[in-house]
Amino acid sequence: EAGVAQSPRYKIIEKRQSVAFWCNPISGHATLYWYQQILGQGPKLLIQFQNNGVVDDSQLPKDRFSAERLKGVDSTLKIQPAKLEDSAVYLCASSPRAGDGELFFGEGSRLTVL
Amino acid sequence: GENVEQHPSTLSVQEGDSAVIKCTYSDSASNYFPWYKQELGKRPQLIIDIRSNVGEKKDQRIAVTLNKTAKHFSLHITETQPEDSAVYFCAASLYKLSFGAGTTVTVRA
């Protein structure tokens, strides 16, 4: 079974620039999550999708972050404009159902904002 | 929202000894408590989980205990080996998963 795919793996940008990350979840998984993991901290949920609808985006900084999951499969997370404090690993995860059961994580996209 | 606290932040043990990591959660309605292991530069992976209707669960050298009254749960690793060195995260969930800050475990040979 193919795992969660993410790209790019690494991205370096200047502050105030924009960046987009892509995620392809495990086939058939209805729930998709984007987590932000700052160095030395636990993953923090940014947004959770159930199929193509948003279940929770309470911790997403909506003035600069946006995410979509078109057709309930792939998802993109965008940051515009980026700030220094956005430097982190952005982890995408998927699960068959929401809030219960194993989350399958991708390798992550490491963002460095200079 | 759910707040998960995890202690200690770092733990160094001699190979063969036991390691214990403790977590507390704030939302008494949370009913699912997984533990994830993250090796350096790798993705987090589930190692064991427990649900609120169970007090203890064991899988070979790892075990998790849950005290719903006190709202805390613990991970126990026995007979530690060098490959157990990693960062371990606890989490709690009702509808969404909230993670603790992590414990860096180092197993000394």
Q: How would a crystallographer describe the biggest sheet of chain B?
A: 6 strands, mixed
> What's the average pLDDT of chain A?
94
Classify the beta-strand content of chain B into a percent band: over 45%
Structural class of chain A: mainly beta
Tell me the major beta sheet of chain A.
Answer: 7 strands, mixed
- State the helix count of chain B: 0
What is the arithmetic mean of pLDDT of chain B? 95
Kindly, what is the distance between the CA atoms of the first and last residues of chain A, rounded to a whole number of angstroms?
Answer: 37 Å
Find the count of extended strands of chain A (DSSP E, 2+ residues). 11
Give the low-confidence spans of chain B. none
Helical element count of chain A?
A: 0
Beta content of chain A comes to: over 45%
State the order of secondary-structure elements of chain A, H for helix, E for strand. Answer: EEEEEEEEEEE
Order of helices and strands of chain B: EEEEEEEEEEE
Shape category of chain B: globular
Number of strands of chain B: 11
**Helicity of chain B, in percent?**
under 10%
Question: What characteristics describe this protein?
Answer:
heterodimer, A: 114 residues, mainly beta, 7-stranded mixed β-sheet, 4-stranded antiparallel β-sheet, 11 strands, B: 109 residues
